[in-house]
Amino acid sequence: MSKSDRVITAGPGCCVPAEEIRWSFGPSGGPGGQHANRANTRVEAELDLAVVRGIDEDVRVRLVTRLGSTIRVTVDRYRSQARNRERALGEIEKRIRDALVEPTLRRATRPARGANERRLETKRRRGARKAERRGEWN
User: Fold this and answer.
1) Considering its fold, how many domains does the chain have in total?
2) 43 CB contacts (<8 Å, ≥6 apart)?
3) Would residue 76 count as lying in a domain?
4) Cα(133)–Cα(127) distance, rounded to whole angstroms?
5) How confident is the model at residue 63, as a pLDDT?
6) pTM for this one?
7) CATH number for the domain including 59?
8) Looking at residue 51, what is its pLDDT?
9) Residues of the chain with pLDDT under 50
10) Dihedral of the CA atoms 60, 61, 66, 70 (nearest 10)?
11) Is the CA virtual torsion 26, 30, 35, 38 positive or negative?
């Protein structure tokens, strides 16, 4: 599979071709001597969600609301540009997938009767212990 064939899929209604990503490269920095200073292994990937192909409109609105209009990822973990590119694609895919997950709403519940009784019993014991300490100091 070539780079242009890669597709970022993050669920139904979201199938983005990898060619939509803007790439830039630079030296990774940090220690490493001549290799780190000369090799452009740091990868910066940018995906503009407002104009990208392959996303349904309702999905696009949800993504832009949660992530903003652009997703930027910088990876310089590996010494290889190719591995950093793959990791950046994976990170973009993960962010999109996480943004599309609907959070489950918490339903408010009351404490159970047993939990309430245990709490009150603990309070009674603690109060009794403190009452014992209040005796005469002779």
Assistant:
1) 1
2) 23, 24, 25, 73, 74, 75, 76, 81, 84, 85, 87, 88
3) yes
4) 10
5) 84
6) 0.68
7) 3.30.160.20
8) 83
9) 1
10) 50
11) positive
